[in-house]
């Protein structure tokens, strides 16, 4: 089942991994985006049977480039946008190619977020971002 996420918020993280997908159409490009994801551990259930989120300790953000240059058929430079990524930290940023500039048209990015620890019954992912409107999770 596919769910669209709108803006910042806490989203349930059930299972060992979540897939986040961003797709841009061919019509135009928009300003770049940066999404901060933070996995939040849940404390044991309270008196009402609810799990309470507990913020994780701070860790530096995972850095990395999203673009790579390759040669086209004529031997000239061609830019190939690589944005597929596997994410395993509690706290990290996802940035669109060319961020903070606009992202290119016909972009299809897939991010896999692995749960940091599986001993907790439930997890949450906190999404917040600059110019972040909607993502498929």
Automatic annotation (TrEMBL):
Keywords: Disulfide bond. GO terms for cellular component: extracellular space. The keyword DNA-binding does not apply. It comes from the Eukaryota. Residues 45-80 are annotated as: Disordered. PANTHER family: COMPLEMENT COMPONENT 1, S SUBCOMPONENT-RELATED (PTHR24255), CUBILIN-LIKE PROTEIN (PTHR24255:SF31). This is CUB domain-containing protein. It comes from Haemaphysalis longicornis (Bush tick).
């Amino acid at each position: 089942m596919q769910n669209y996420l709108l803006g910042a918020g806490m989203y349930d993280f059930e299972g060992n991994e979540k897939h986040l997908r961003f797709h841009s159409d061919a019509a135009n490009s928009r300003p770049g985006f940066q999404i901060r994801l933070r996995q939040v551990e849940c404390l044991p259930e309270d008196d009402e049977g609810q799990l309470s989120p507990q913020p994780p300790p701070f860790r530096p953000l995972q850095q990395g480039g999203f673009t790579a240059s390759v040669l086209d058929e004529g031997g000239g430079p061609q830019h190939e946008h690589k944005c597929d990524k596997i994410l395993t930290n509690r706290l990290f940023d996802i940035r669109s190619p060319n961020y903070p500039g606009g992202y290119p048209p016909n972009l299809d990015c897939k991010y896999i977020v692995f749960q940091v620890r599986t001993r907790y019954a439930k997890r949450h992912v906190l999404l917040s971002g600059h110019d972040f409107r909607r993502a498929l999770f």
